[in-house]
């Protein structure tokens, strides 16, 4: 039974039932917010609303399977804060997806959009499923039904989804079509990351790799590495990690370690990303690649290198392994790969961490460009998009470096403080209604 606090007495966390989204993922996101807000001396009453999502929609998604049976799935769409503009965030398909994971990602998107000065708030969504268990036709029916279930939250001025884990351009095309059919006319700006043939701009996951590579170069310059060919280990050779490997290899970096879901490889003399891609395309994975030594996933993270780029899944660099890392720089291509406890250990070791809300923010920035082009019905060339993207990411890096140096902060704390300050200012000037 829940005990109610007296009218003028604050409720103790132990006196109330936990919120449904308070999973380890979301609690970690809260700890990051609390830590930085305390360093900023931010008004706790102003911060308190940001500790929880603004709204959470949990929906049941019934769908017909190819064999005629009916399957019911659980899905979500969460808005964390929309004081800066409409919600912006991905849609992911994951077998163990829960509300806390989605809410944590929505909070992360709030900080990412605010840091990049984008006119968006933080949102996120997804369906609890394993894409390997469904045919393309089944995934289409599931995606369309999911869209219809959350359609009350969607809109070019309300909430604009994009691709995330295990979703892609095709997924976005289905969402755009379902939304447009319901409205009776085509609405290209309802999603980003869709195919170019229906109003897409650049492949958003290609731009994430582009942005992570750019931040890796800025990290090398900032730390003044003397090595003319910095070594890099990339965890996750998916659509982000593979682009990162290719771009840095072309720019003289030495890729000494890589991994995917099938295994991990190491070659001190360097790996050729093009050859790796050919091998994976022909065999389905990195296993038994002849020009490298096989290592475990844990060993990969602990390889000696200049740069470690976790580009796979969250919670990879923990308090239990942070002290074992031998890198000088971490550039977070994935969302949330490093825990707050690991951050403290890395800071003590002098490891420079380029945080996810900065390192992989090129994806949402390119999504903003696509949204603008869809609304204007005026499309830029690919060169124009990349030029604008590099300019905006570069400007944000400069601002983060300035705050970090001026206030003696880590890059993550500086990035978070800039983002939190912008959101708090927007909420202050907008006021509280009624």
Describe this entry's structure for a reader.
The chain has about 425 residues and is α/β, with parallel strands linked by helices. The protein folds into 2 domains: about 20-185, Rossmann fold, CATH 3.40.50.10860; about 205-360, Rossmann fold. It has 14 helices and 12 strands. The chain has helices at about 25-40, 45, 100-115, 135-150, 170-185, 205-225, 240-250, 275-285, 295-300, 340-350, 355-360, 360-375, 380-405, 410-430, and strands at about 55-65, 70-80, 85-95, 120-130, 160-165, 230-235, 255-260, 265, 295, 305-310, 330, 350-355. The strands form 2 sheets. Strands 9-8-7-6-10-11-12 form a 7-stranded mixed beta sheet, with helices on both faces. β11, α10 and β12 (about 350-355) form a beta-alpha-beta unit. α1 (about 25-40) runs parallel beside α3 (about 100-115), α4 (about 135-150) crosses α5 (about 170-185) and α6 (about 205-225) packs across α7. The two termini are about 30 Å apart. Residues about 1-10 have low confidence and may be disordered.
Strand and helix layout:
Layout: H1 24-39, H2 44-47, E1 55-64, E2 70-81, E3 87-94, H3 99-115, E4 121-128, H4 136-150, E5 159-163, H5 169-183, H6 204-223, E6 231-235, H7 241-250, E7 254-260, E8 263-266, H8 273-283, E9 293-295, H9 297-301, E10 307-310, E11 329-331, H10 340-349, E12 352-354, H11 356-359, H12 362-376, H13 382-407, H14 411-430
Parallel strand pairs: 3-4, 3-5, 6-7, 6-10, 10-11, 11-12
Antiparallel strand pairs: 1-2, 2-4, 7-8, 8-9
Helix pairs in contact: 1-3, 1-14, 3-14, 4-5, 6-7, 6-12, 6-13, 12-13, 13-14
């Amino acid at each position: 039974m829940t005990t109610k606090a007296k009218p003028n007495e604050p409720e103790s966390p132990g006196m109330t039932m936990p919120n449904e989204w308070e999973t380890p993922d979301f609690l970690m996101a809260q700890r990051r917010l609390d830590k930085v807000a305390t360093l900023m001396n931010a008004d706790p009453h102003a911060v308190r609303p940001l500790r929880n999502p603004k709204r959470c929609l949990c929906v049941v998604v019934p769908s017909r399977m190819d064999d005629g049976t009916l399957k019911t799935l659980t899905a979500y769409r969460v808005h964390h804060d929309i004081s800066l503009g409409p919600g912006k965030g991905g849609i992911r398909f994951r077998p163990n997806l829960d509300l806390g994971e989605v809410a944590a990602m929505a909070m992360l998107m709030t900080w990412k959009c605010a840091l990049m000065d984008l006119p968006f708030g933080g949102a996120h969504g997804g369906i609890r499923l394993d894409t390997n268990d469904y045919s393309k036709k089944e995934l289409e029916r599931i995606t369309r039904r999911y869209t219809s279930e959350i359609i009350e939250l969607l809109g070019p001025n309300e909430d604009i989804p994009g691709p995330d884990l295990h979703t892609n351009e095709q997924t976005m095309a289905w969402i755009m079509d379902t939304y447009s059919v319901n409205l009776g006319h085509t609405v290209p700006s309802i999603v980003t990351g869709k195919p170019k043939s229906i109003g897409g701009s650049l492949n958003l996951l290609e731009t994430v790799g582009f942005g992570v590579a750019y931040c890796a170069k800025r990290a090398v310059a900032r730390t003044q590495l003397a090595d003319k060919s910095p070594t890099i280990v990339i965890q996750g050779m998916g659509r982000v990690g593979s682009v990162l490997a290719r771009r840095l290899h072309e720019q003289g970096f030495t890729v000494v370690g890589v991994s995917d879901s099938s295994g991990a490889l190491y070659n001190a003399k360097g790996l050729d990303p093009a050859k790796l891609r050919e091998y994976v395309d022909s065999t389905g994975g990195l296993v038994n690649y002849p020009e490298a030594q096989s290592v475990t996933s844990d060993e990969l993270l602990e390889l000696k290198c200049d740069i470690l780029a976790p580009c796979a899944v969250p919670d990879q660099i923990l308090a239990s392994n942070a002290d074992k890392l031998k890198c000088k720089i971490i550039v977070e291509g994935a969302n949330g790969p490093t825990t707050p406890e690991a951050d403290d250990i890395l800071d003590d070791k002098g490891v420079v961490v380029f945080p996810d809300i900065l390192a992989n923010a090129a994806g949402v920035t390119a999504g903003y460009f696509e949204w603008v082009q869809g609304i204007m019905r005026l499309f830029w060339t690919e060169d124009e998009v990349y030029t604008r993207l590099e300019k905006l990411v570069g400007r944000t890096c400069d601002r983060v470096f300035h705050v970090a140096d001026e206030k003696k902060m880590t890059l993550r704390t500086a990035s978070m403080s800039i983002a939190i300050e912008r959101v708090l200012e927007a909420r202050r000037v907008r006021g509280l209604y009624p």
